Amino acid sequence: MRLRCLAAFLFLALVPVHVNAQQASPVVLHAARLLQVDTGAIVQPGEILVEGNLIRAVGTSVEHPTGAKIIDLGNTTLMPGLIDAHVHLFLHPGAEDLQTVIESVPWRTILAEQAAKDDVMAGFTAERDMGTEGAGSADTAVRNAINRGLISGPRLRISGNAIDILGGHEDANRYNPAQHVLSNADYANSAEQIVEVMREQHKEGSDFAKIYETGPDRMVDGVLQTPYQYSAAQLTAAVQEAHRLGGFVGVHAMGEPGTLYAAQAGVASIDHATHLSDETVRLMKEKGIFAVPTFTIFDYFAHHRDTQDQAAAEAEMLDYKIKEFKKQVAAGVPFAVGSDVGPFPHGTQARELTLMVQYGMKPLAALQADMINGAKLLDWEGHIGELKAGYYADIIAVPGNPLDDISTCEHVSFVMKNGKVLREP
Asked: How far is the CA of 379 from the CAs of 127, 142, 255, 407, in angstroms?
């Protein structure tokens, strides 16, 4: 009898808690406008019927079931939840290299929980965490706690640590070698080691692999210099392994030839993507590889460095990046939206949309890159990123019309994730 009771207890302990306890009754959201992001159509007024964690109907007027809760959001625009395809939940403003050495992983995990809450309250209902910067698989715990409804945060795709070569972009290169300061990434110096590391990370809960493909970066006589780290063949091995595991590869790659090698290998995204050759652009368009510009981090560092020389170097890089971005937009490069938030405050990263429009994109194109392409990149296409019946009820409201003023996305007033209201005016 005792054994049976113990077995029953263990079984119940392993049963997952339901994701985000749902509203007890249907909810009808009403606002002055609703954006259909796939077409750019503005529906006036806009209503959405939510039942459980799903959208059931969208239009100028929807059914109001008996007992439904009506939420009137006034002069706002209803939109799908925002998607940030490049975040670092385990970083906060300050010297990133020092915080990864001084702060314990348990402490950084607590801060990551707070960062996740800040992001979702700002309207980011889905995110891709691009490396814990030395915290290993601690992001698995954060993702699982969110999924079980224990803490508040976005839907997450996570990578654990990024993958890097010895002496590479995220290695502890500036420290006394005798101290054996650990890298912020997992070492892999060959295709075989990349696969081995990916399998270990997958075992610990990763959804995808983040790989450093270029670095360090500097401008020399107006030209970007960014050495590559892995060959196209090595990245191809990573992509093949990711597909076997049911995931994908996203790379940190600033410029050539690393960006070309990444495109040849068929990665899912090239993050930062400051310089792309004509051949790289061709391959990205052919294979549907997304560029994730991450303007906000460059803009932040151009104004927040310890010395004027450092700030000037960042500003030069940003100016170069803007010129190249305009070329990429004209060439039809596929884009997703990622901010690289972490080194700057979580919850403020909607500025990425503002900067992408400022530097050459149309507001609708930026929103489509964020929501539609973001859903594809995070492998949630058909589930999030649009306001359609059968999609998850990840919904936000912003003042005014974002097609007229994209910066309204920096002022989200209402957030619903998975049918649960997290923020109301």
From this structure: 11, 19, 25, 27
Buried b (16+ CB within 10 A) or exposed e, 276-290: beeebbebbeeeebb
Distance CA 155, CA 207 (A): 12
Q: What is residue 22's three-state secondary structure?
A: coil
CA distance 147 to 216: 36
pLDDT at 10 over 80: no
The answer to whether the beta carbons of residues 338 and 87 sit under 8 Å apart is yes
420: β partners: 417
Cβ atoms < 10 Å from Cβ of 178? 6
Cβ neighbours around 337 below 10 Å, total: 30
Residue 48 is inside which H or E element, if any?
A: strand 46-51
Q: What is the mean pLDDT of the chain?
A: 93
What is the pLDDT, as a whole number, of residue 174? Answer: 86
Mean pLDDT of 137-142: 98
What is d(CA 279, CA 94) in angstroms, rounded to the nearest whole number? 38
C-alpha dist (Å) from residue 425 to 66, 75, 399, 403: 24, 12, 11, 22
Q: Rounded to the nearest 5°, which phi and psi values hold at 373?
A: -70, -35
pLDDT at 304: 85
Contacts of residue 6, defined as CB under 8 A and 6 or more positions apart, other chains included, come to none
Pairing of strands 249-253, 209-212: parallel
First to last CA, the chain: 54
Provide Rg for the chain, Cα atoms: 22
Q: DSSP states of 215-247 as a string?
A: ---EEETTEEE--B-S-HHHHHHHHHHHHHHT-
